[in-house]
Amino acid sequence: MALFWPLSSERFFMPLRPIHVAPLSVKALLSARGAAVIASELRWVWLPCFAMGALLALQRRRGEHALRAS
């Protein structure tokens, strides 16, 4: 995170980082470390997004069904 960006280019990290920092090269991304990064992104970003989207779609279908029934 570029907290002090105009004054410093140093990167700062929070003490708790559930999503691992991705390596910057393709070769490193295809290594075991890259697989760990992709797994953490799936767990903390993509799976919750898909779950929320599925719940919202289900709620929307139930709402449309209730409107048709009344």
Structure overview:
The chain has 2 helices and no strands. The chain has a domain at 26-69. The model has no long low-confidence stretch (mean pLDDT 84). The protein has 70 residues and is mainly α. The chain is elongated and about 60 Å long.
Strand percentage lies at under 5%
Radius of gyration over alpha carbons? Answer: 20 Å
| Helix and strand run | HH
Low-confidence stretches: none
Residue share in helix = 55-70%
> Termini separation (Å)?
52 Å
Largest sheet: none
**How would you classify the helix and strand content by structural class?**
mainly alpha
SS field, number of helical segments: 2
Q: What is the 3D form? A: elongated
* Topology, number of strands: 0
Q: Averaging pLDDT over every residue, what do you get? A: 84
In short:
By secondary structure, the protein is mostly helical.
From the structure above, extract its key features.
70 residues; mainly alpha; 60% helix
Task: Note the topology.
Elements: H1 26-29, H2 32-69
